[in-house]
Write a structure and sequence with these properties.
By secondary structure, this protein is an alpha+beta fold. It contains eleven helices and 40 strands. It folds into three domains: about 170 residues, Methylamine Dehydrogenase, Chain H; about 90 residues; about 260 residues, 3-Layer(aba) Sandwich (Rossmann fold). The strands form ten sheets. Strands 33-34-36-35-37-38-39-40 form an eight-stranded mixed β-sheet, with helices on both faces. Helix 5 crosses helix 6. Keywords: Acetylation, Hydrolase, Protease, Serine protease, Signal. GO terms for molecular function: serine-type endopeptidase activity.
Amino acid sequence: MTTPATFLSALLLASTALAQSTPPTSATSTRPASATTTTTKRPIRPADVMRLQSVADPQVSPDGKWVAFVQSGVDASKDKRNPDIWMVSWDGKESVQLTNSPDGESTPRWSPDGKYLSFLSGRSGAPGTATGAQLWLMDRRGGEAKKLTDLKGDLEEYEWSPSGRKIALVIQDKDYSDSAKTKIRTPYVMDRHQFKADMKGYLDRRPMHLYVFDVATKTLDTLTKGVYDETAPAWSPDETQLAFTSNRSTDPDKNENTDVYVIAARSGAQPRQLTNWPGRDGGAVWSPDGKQLAYLRSTASTNFIMYDQPVLALVAVDGSTTTVPQPRLLSLPLDRPIRNARWSADGQMVGILVDDDRRTHVAEYRVADGKMTYLTTGDRAFADLEPNPKGGWVTLMSEPQLPTEVYALESGTTRRLTTVQNDFVAPLLLSTVTGYTSRSKDGAQVSSLLFMPPNGPAGKLPAIFYIHGGPVSQDTYGFDLTRQVLAGGGYAVVGVNYRGSNGRGIDYTKAIYGDWGNKEVLDILGAADALVQKGTADPARLGIGGWSYGGILTNYVIASDTRFKAAASGAGSSLQLTMYGSDQYVNQYENELGLPWKNLDKWLKVSYPFLKADRIKTPTMFMASEKDFNVPVAGSEQMYQALQTLGIPTQLIIYPNQFHGITTPSYQQDRLVRYLSWFDQYLKSNLSTTQTGR
């Protein structure tokens, strides 16, 4: 029902990652300079989603002189985004496009000698070879990429060995269900407790295992077997071992446990368990001397740990004992979620990203004494972190008026390496973004972000409260396309980090456990009261909307209070009782709410937007994705039907063949157009509703 923070991060990236570009025809051409010369700026419009580029996955070359990354733009003729591999020099003076195929490329990784770049692509190879994502190899000096693997299963992850002679692969067994000559798929047969997941669909029991690929001979050795999945492989510096993550409990479907294991990098070796926390351990990375692993451990040890924040842990890798060693929990006193743990090149520091009250910053922990130092400051949001072998870090960063770019981070100073977004922002008059705090009815202090319309009129403005999903995520000072577009339409736009959000400590996040639609509603109403009292928002022209848990909270709010004159609820649900068995959150339901047949009162309590739909007076547009297994389309259909029956103005929009996150560019634009049209109809009835260029 609700959306994990990790998914929300992916969703926000997807929603800001679509654009059009005109790449150079030569793979070795440098990026063309900006051709925009106009000095007349305009507000951002929904159509600008087609121009916006995404930047992701920066990787530093072994000599520290280049950074490879993925840049994605929109192919308007095919209505899809197309990722390509680029690289930029460490001094930022030269940028080179390396791939340019209609199939797209992702996951660039340098060979340890720095001579080659590998990547994943579904581009076709020789006739008769396997399809799906395969591993390709490109000489960084130029020339065509060569297909390295011909795998029958699904390639999920890969990692070069330190010598460059081998590559660790994570491969899911081949799916033979569609092998019939008639092209008619065989029936889905499920016998798992967790039998569905968004994007993956119905789940079978095909495991993901570790393999070692020999680059010279192109032979594949099986490293692990059995019924369990193995992910996140990491080579030891001496190339003798691999660390990986796995859930090897009796029934992995019924818990959130994962642990870190190590295994000798040879066929027939048996894995050794290195952690035994009942919660979640994973994502291990080796120290340069091979003596320790840094990894992330959950704070909670309970079965369902959505309301949690990862902790940086260090554990010694001692092969002389069979006992599980005790880890050092470096960031536990910080009481903030951390991620992207990476060792510095000299092994003295572990770099991390820290989510802290509307900001995400880079920090380092000194291994010797556990002291933490922030390397960045200000109203910004960093994402991704990789060390430069020569010292310093490469990272991604965005600001309220600048989408994501690649940055070098040296001695506490950030230096921008890419100029991907220059053409996008050049003609735009973007919203200014400021933070403010409010106090809820029960005394809770809540942090929010306010987007003011560029060149907006003086006085009280129509305001839209656009609520983030998760619930365990946060609105940050990073670039936000949706709120910028709404502000460009003449609205004051607010993002509220209600209780349940992260970045404010574990108690703040856990405050809504088993109590949905209560404290979050108080926080949103308190944020609205504060904006009205400041004279910024017109109390007669308030709107609310959101996607995923933001859509769910929209339903809760309009069933609790009639002050909002228009609402747009996306990928939401209200009759939560019907979500059991129809979405992917069976573990959350059984642990947080209990079994429906034993805890019916609690289930009915959190279903109040549907059961008390006759209290809703707000005209509401409901939106959903046809193939969403995260929050199934029924959640929006039920509320739409209820409001139709009650005679409340309503509309239902369903996007064909989309999962929880809308990824088709034209649908992304359409959603923004519909937001503005719906809010204009009810919040600007006495004003002009004409919006140019939608």
